[in-house]
Amino acid sequence: MVHSSLIVTAAFSWLHLVNAVNNGLARTPPMGWNNWNSLACDVSEDLLLSTSKKLIDLGLRDMGYDHVVLDDCWQDIRGEDGYVTPDKGKFPNGMRAISDQLHMKGFKFGMYSSAGEMTCARYAGSLDHESKDAENFASWGVDFLKYDNCYHMGRMGTPETSFNRFKAMSDALRATGRQIALSLCNWGEDYVHTWGMSIANAWRMSGDIYDSFARPDDLCGCDTNNPTDPFCIAPGTHCSVLFILNKVAPFVDRSIPGGWNDLDMLEVGQGGMTDEEYKAHFALWAALKSPLMLGNDLRVTSPSTLSIINNPAIIALSQDMHGRAAQRVARNLDVPKDEYGVGETHIWSGKLHNGDQVVILLNAANEDLDMSAPLSEIFVSEGPGGSAPQANQSWEVFDLWANRMSDAEARSILEAADDQTRAEIFGKLGWYNATDIPYEVGLEQGDKRLFGQKVGVVEAHSAWNVKVLRHSAKVYRFRRSGVKSEGHNEL
After folding, report:
1. According to the UniProt entry, where is the signal peptide (predicted)?
2. In the predicted model, what is the mean pLDDT of residues 230-234?
């Protein structure tokens, strides 16, 4: 019998021949909206254009949500000429008309297909039709392609097999001459985290998310306590936030500027989680550098949902130019479990471009807990056992949720009667506008809206101690006391 590790080693031997994708796109994780989580196949021209208006009205485009992505079910049939046409009932003016209108409003237009004979909703897929479908996308002014993994005719099972299947579309898009970001949605199969960056700007690393913080589900297909099992079957659907975090933890460092681990679309606002769970979900997706694709129906947004997804101090973690994801530096399973036997705590930590550190204490246990994050663990990547020089310094601690927009303020935006009223509200609030001041510039200038509120100091060789509510996360930016962070402005 050949040992499985030898099979894996052999399967990966070809990878040194591949150069990382360098198309100049997605230098920070893409942000935007995708219809699938809330509306599935209920798609139309009106939906895309009305949602784009909502993104503007709610100030979300100016927070960085500049992609409008149409998911599955837009297709009619593939014609005798080999080209797929859009459903004329749903899109009477065609895709180019939608694209032109979105571009005029400052958006990028995203579309969907699958590297299979059918899409997941059983419309025409792109397998063996990559060139003609890429020609369509380019002629329609598409900027971003979500490329799924359904009905792939058995062309998977080794990294090279999956790589070649997805590379066909990557090559076809490049051949059109149009800059189109490619987001692979292959559910983490065949070790995509080792080769996705060679051909794409993002790659899904797990089965589909569903609107649950920690509940296990058989359709996710893996043991909740061993989500990194490479031989996991049926990874396609119903994976909780906690499962996805555990799945990505061992290879979270594979994200690089221009290529990102995709933890799947956001569930914030869908209704299956608590406010604290949604806050934790959103913050961890940002800190781990997943694309931030809103999945809720923005036409029925609640104040609490808006005040989560428009927090500039959290989004600044996502858009930080250092481009490295926070990593998990501590995990504790010896905590109270819920009715499914699930319960654990994490500490996540990561370096930011200006020398600051993001620190997240996640409580996924079944009760409120006192948690402690020692500097020796926070900076373990710089040296284990407290040997990191950062552990010998004191750090000011800034709470990144402290300045969250209030429900009353969010409601005033949602209920504003016209554009002028909304503009006056945003002006009065002084809310951050990334269209006017990109996050890179705001961070460089030390814009206080991106840095939260100071809540304490951690002295050298000590720890940050705090009570963390059940199913919630404390999210902090650590800044060196009395020292300008690598030449950048202090608050």
Report:
1. 1-20
2. 63
